[in-house]
Design goal:
Strand order of the largest sheet: 2-5-12-7-8-10-11
Distance between the termini: 38 Å
Number of strands: 13
Largest sheet: 7 strands, antiparallel
CATH architecture: Sandwich
Radius of gyration: 16 Å
CATH class: Mainly Beta
Shape: globular
Length: 192
Amino acid sequence: MIMKHLVLILLSMSLYADTARGQSITEFDGKDGMDWQVVNDGVMGGLSEGKLTLNPSGTMKFSGMLSLENNGGFSTFRSGDLKLDLSGDLGLLLRVKGDGRTYQARLATDALFRGMEVSFAAEFATKKGEWIEVKVPFASFKGTFRGLDLPKEKLDPAKVRRVSILLGDKKQGPFELEIDSIQTYRAAAAQK
């Protein structure tokens, strides 16, 4: 299933070869006023431990230990409340140095399921120890709620209220993802 998603993302990325940078969501330079917080699977009894480290070089390191014990298996970090209109863009553009694991970019809007926030998720792969730019098309984000797929929910990029990065690949062990920036990308003709 993960391979299928990766193939779809790679195919989608090739469709947008003629793209340009869009909006900056964060550069992790402390000037954006973002309030990032870690949420681990301890909220449901798990034992995973993730943490954030803001580096003097202007990057954010998300690292820790993923545990599958006690039905756990995820660690995430997320922004505080936002009001972003990304409707003129095609997707997220992340500059990351990873550990070879597959992470999820997640966005929340005003969409609700049972009165609670729907999370729109799309996977992206990393290369161990290498800085790469990853394009995550908005079209690849799928609605979810606590592991339940919500195929009828569609991402509205005009109403982004939260940005998150999650690790939940069912592989116990240490993880480390360094992020230089989270931006958007758009069609080259749309660049201002």
